[in-house]
């Protein structure tokens, strides 16, 4: 099972940017679809974005389209989430996860990172 470690979170003002990274252990990173999810206190974990194994196809939740970009570097076993024009409602714990096939729900993902906090102040 792959190990995932997120980094790059923190506190940012509304309108600002953050780039999250998710580093994966092991040699099989390129065999996984990678996804990002977020969970606010008291709410369920929701889909943010996903990217195929090769990186040629991406998907986004409607709430983040045009503001967030997912990318991956298979040579570095890392997936990124560039977040621009952040809003207070983007505040949540962000998780990266692996899947063996394309999915845009948490149920489709197998391994999860520990999560990282993103807080956007108004």
Commentary on this structure:
This protein is an all-beta fold and about 120 residues long. The protein has strands spanning about 5, 10-15, 20-25, 35-40, 45-50, 60, 70-75, 80-85, 90-100, 115-120. The strands form two sheets. It has a six-stranded mixed sheet, with no helix packed on it.
Major β-sheet strand ordering: 2-10-9-4-5-6
Sheet of most strands: 6 strands, mixed
**In sequence order, what are the helices and strands, one letter per element?**
EEEEEEEEEE
Low-confidence stretches: none
Structural class: mainly beta
Number of helices: 0
Q: Which bin fits the share of residues in helices?
A: under 10%
Gross morphology is globular
Number of strands: 10
Provide the residue-averaged pLDDT: 97
β-strand percent reads: over 45%
**CA-atom Rg in angstroms:** 13 Å
Calculate the terminal CA-CA distance, rounded to whole Å.
39 Å
Question: Any key phrases for this structure?
Answer:
4-stranded antiparallel beta sheet, mainly beta, 6-stranded mixed beta sheet, 122 residues
Quick description:
By secondary structure, this protein is mainly beta. It has strands spanning 4-7, 10-13, 18-24, 33-39, 46-51, 58-60, 68-73, 78-83, 92-99, 116-121.
Topology:
Elements: E1 4-7, E2 10-13, E3 18-24, E4 33-39, E5 46-51, E6 58-60, E7 68-73, E8 78-83, E9 92-99, E10 116-121
Parallel strand pairs: 2-10
Antiparallel strand pairs: 1-3, 3-8, 4-5, 4-9, 5-6, 7-8, 9-10
